[in-house]
Design brief:
- By secondary structure, the protein is α/β, with parallel strands linked by helices.
- The chain is 38% helix and 16% strand.
- It contains 5 helices and 5 strands; from the N terminus they run H-E-H-E-E-H-E-H-E-H.
- Strands 2-1-3-4-5 form a 5-stranded parallel β-sheet, with helices on both faces.
- Strand 1, helix 2 and strand 2 form a beta-alpha-beta unit.
- The chain is globular and about 35 Å long.
- The protein starts with a helix and ends in a 5-residue tail after the last helix.
Length: 135
């Protein structure tokens, strides 16, 4: 448990402030919308990644991680577990420092691949729950 707490702390405080939120759209009833708002309140730049490439919370959206024309520090994943592995692989490919799988998003093989590639990673957690606990 201490290892996961330290990884959460590292991602939230040391990995950088540019977060690509995969699955973030302008749909205010989706969890990603509120989590992204919380991340912004804590000083993170939130980059929406969604097939519609909508602007959300004042930030230009992109259809994929590969379309983002600047470095991304953390990839926050709001997709079903069966789709999450390829997103983690894309995060590695674009040079992200960390991957965060949201509550209910679990893929052990993707976790192992991502960690083996040298990235920090957590699964089945929510940064909007974790970040206020750091204070």
């Amino acid at each position: 448990m201490d290892d996961i707490r330290q990884t959460i702390r590292t991602i939230l405080l040391e990995s950088g402030d540019t977060w690509a939120v995969v699955g973030l759209s302008s749909n205010q009833s989706r969890a990603a919308y509120g989590v992204a708002q919380t991340l912004q309140r804590f000083g993170k730049r939130v980059v929406p990644v969604h097939p519609k490439a909508e602007t959300v919370h004042g930030e230009q959206g992109y259809a994929s991680l590969a379309d983002i024309p600047f470095p991304v520090d953390v990839v926050d994943v709001f997709v079903n577990s069966d789709l999450a592995g390829p997103v983690a692989d894309e995060a590695v490919a674009i040079g992200a420092k960390a991957v965060w799988f949201q509550l209910g998003v679990i893929d052990e093989a993707a976790y192992d691949r991502t960690r083996a590639a040298g990235l920090d990673m957590v699964m089945d957690r929510c940064p909007a729950i974790e970040i206020p606990r750091l204070g």
